[in-house]
Structures are given as structure tokens and as C-alpha cells.
């Protein structure tokens, strides 16, 4: 059964040199409060696994960890929105592992399912070929990518019950698949409700996958954060 803890307690589950999956993409469905705690804790030499860099302009969500230089390797499909991250990659301060967006998700899914590889024709004839092993299946060329797993996954959901059953709202993004592919799963949620208040058909991630639940920002607080962010970045 999942255990409810504070964000300060949860961040202690992440140590130097850990591999950490972080759900969400460009501000959507991102565990903002846990990212703030990771940045404040100064945990270093992290391998961060996320489908995309922080919200445009840099210094937002995962971008806070970039500014702190806490990341030594970034596994992703998209880096173009964070100039600070791009600079660190160019300067070889951060090692970059790229794969196409759909392939990235399937690699995480394979990691959660215990599969040995993702085999796909996506990327054949492009620069992606250099990122994977090429194999022949039934006379046709494919690219073979290894599965992705992490020591810790920090994901974002709308609600949780005390058992760790998670309900998503709107864009769940990479959060459900990442919940299956880490040794420790920390779910940041808007609110925690009683057992039975989340109907079985609304459960996006069963509690068996979740180790810890933390209370994040409320829906209204997140709305205000993003409204201020959008106004500020649209002035850039």
C-alpha cells in the first residue's frame, strides 16, 4: 500500500547519481512541487529521464535542475525549449541520449513490462540510425532500442486515494507508463480522497505501482502558476 509523506520526506528517496524519471511535458502534467524540492535539495549527478526539456525560456520545471547543474545525463526526445540545457549539452557538461518521441514512450513501456527491446522502423534512413542497433527481421531493416527503467519515478496525477490508486485529469502524458518502470514511484497529486471516491474505471494507475503519495499544489494554485508563467514568457 502507498504511504503518504511530505515532499521533504519524498526527496530523501532520491540520492546522488540516481536515475530519475519525471513525468509531463513542457509544463503539462508535471510534478512541479517535487521538482522544486529536488532543486532545493541539491542532489547531484542525476540521470534524468523525461520526454522533453523544461517549459520554454529555461529555468522552469526541469529547467530549475538544469540551472543548478544537477544533471549529468539526460534521456529524452526533445531539448529545444531550454537554452540552458542546450548550452550544457554543447559544452559536454550533460550527456544526451535521444530517441524519437513515440520510441521513447515505448522504451519506457518496455522497461515496465520487462521486455528486452523495442524494435521499430521509425528513424530508418535518418540520423536516428546512429542512436540504435540495426537489425534485420524477415528481410526488413529495423532499429533496436534498449528499454528504459529508473531508480525513481516522480509522476503527476490529479487525485489519489490512500491505497495509491491514481486518477488523471486531461493530459496524463507520460505519467502512467513511467509509474510502471521504476524501483520507487512517487506520485504528486492535487488532492487525496477516501477509498472508493475514485471509481474503478477512473483509475489510471493502480496503487500496486505507487510507493509514496505527496500533496502537490491544488488545481487552483497550478492554474495560477501557469497563467503567470504564460503571461511572463509571452512577453519574451
UniProtKB/TrEMBL annotation:
Keyword Protein biosynthesis assigned: no
Keyword Transferase tagged: yes
Alphabetical keyword list: Transferase
Pfam families reported in the protein's UniProt record: CoA_trans
SMART domains on file: CoA_trans
Protein name per UniProt: 3-oxoacid CoA-transferase subunit A
Organism expressing this protein natively: Acetobacterium malicum
Higher taxonomy: Bacteria, Bacillati, Bacillota, Clostridia, Eubacteriales
Amino acid at each position: 500500500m502507498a504511504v503518504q509523506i511530505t515532499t521533504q520526506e519524498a526527496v530523501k528517496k532520491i540520492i546522488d547519481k540516481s536515475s530519475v524519471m519525471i513525468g509531463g511535458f513542457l509544463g503539462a502534467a508535471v510534478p512541479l512541487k517535487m521538482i522544486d524540492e529536488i532543486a532545493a535539495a541539491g542532489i547531484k549527478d542525476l540521470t534524468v529521464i523525461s520526454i522533453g526539456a523544461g517549459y520554454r525560456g529555461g529555468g522552469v520545471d526541469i529547467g530549475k535542475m538544469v540551472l543548478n547543474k544537477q544533471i549529468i545525463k539526460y534521456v529524452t526526445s526533445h531539448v529545444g525549449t531550454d537554452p540552458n540545457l542546450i548550452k550544457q549539452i554543447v559544452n559536454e557538461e550533460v550527456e544526451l541520449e535521444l530517441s524519437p518521441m513515440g520510441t521513447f514512450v515505448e522504451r519506457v513501456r518496455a522497461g515496465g513490462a520487462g521486455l528486452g527491446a523495442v524494435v521499430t522502423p521509425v528513424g530508418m534512413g535518418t540520423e536516428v540510425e546512429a542512436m540504435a542497433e540495426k537489425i534485420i527481421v524477415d528481410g526488413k531493416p529495423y532499429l533496436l532500442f534498449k528499454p528504459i527503467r529508473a531508480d525513481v519515478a516522480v509522476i503527476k496525477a490529479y487525485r489519489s486515494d490512500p491505497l495509491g490508486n491514481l486518477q488523471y485529469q486531461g493530459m496524463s502524458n507520460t505519467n502512467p507508463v513511467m509509474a510502471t518502470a521504476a524501483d520507487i514511484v512517487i506520485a504528486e497529486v492535487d488532492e487525496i480522497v477516501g477509498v472508493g471516491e475514485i471509481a474503478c474505471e477512473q483509475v489510471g494507475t493502480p496503487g500496486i505501482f505507487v510507493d509514496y503519495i505527496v500533496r502537490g499544489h491544488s488545481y487552483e494554485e497550478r492554474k495560477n502558476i501557469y497563467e503567470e508563467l504564460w503571461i511572463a514568457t509571452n512577453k519574451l
